[in-house]
Design brief:
By secondary structure, the chain is of the alpha+beta class. It contains six helices and six strands; from the N terminus they run H-E-E-H-H-H-E-E-H-E-E-H. A hairpin with a 6-residue loop joins strand 1 and strand 2. The model has no long low-confidence stretch (mean pLDDT about 90).
Length: about 180
């Protein structure tokens, strides 16, 4: 499942072997691609204060996922998410297309507050409309990639089978057969 909030949370990219961390939010090129990918248009890059709030939002969302794994989200985190959602004043309008009528929400202002509210809304939709227990963090402690477990059994542990799963499987194998080599 590819959603704006998961893409945003995973902007803190960690080498799955634990050698380095890259913060894509600090890369103007990444932010531009992110906005284009998700159909968001704002005038200009974020200023330093907005950059700080973007990082804080990512930290909040990641901590909420960690809290979900252990039980439930704290009230103060839920309140913080609601505060971000309130940053986007919007109007509703009725639109007609080939399928019929639909209700559209139109932001009054397309700025960085709007972008943050869209990310927060995506996360809120995952919690409200999907199974929040399927939101997981890769079991590779060096990775921390966040993903939505779409497996039938809900037992997926790793973000990718070809990197993290293989790496940890090989490490477990080597540890078991340490004296045989």
């Amino acid at each position: 499942m590819d959603t704006i909030c998961l893409d945003f949370i995973n902007s803190e990219f960690r080498d799955f072997r634990g050698r380095w961390v890259r913060d894509d939010l600090q890369q103007p090129g990444w932010l531009e691609q992110f906005l284009v990918k998700w159909g968001l248009q704002v005038d200009g890059p974020p200023d330093a204060a907005t950059q700080t709030t973007l990082v804080a939002l990512r930290t909040l969302l990641r901590s909420m996922i960690e809290a979900l794994v252990e039980g439930q989200i704290a009230d103060h985190d839920q309140a913080a998410l609601n505060a971000v959602l309130l940053k986007m004043p919007l109007n509703r309008r009725l639109m007609k297309d080939t399928e019929g009528y639909r209700l559209e929400m139109v932001p009054l202002k397309k700025d960085w507050d709007w972008v943050q509210a869209e990310v927060a809304a995506s996360f809120a939709h995952l919690l409200a409309d999907q199974d929040p227990r399927r939101l997981k963090m890769c079991a590779n402690t060096n990775c921390r990639w966040v993903f939505y477990d779409e497996s039938k059994s809900r037992t997926r542990l790793y973000c990718t089978p070809d990197k993290c799963a293989n790496l940890l499987k090989a490490r477990r194998f080597r540890a078991r057969h340490k004296n045989n080599f």
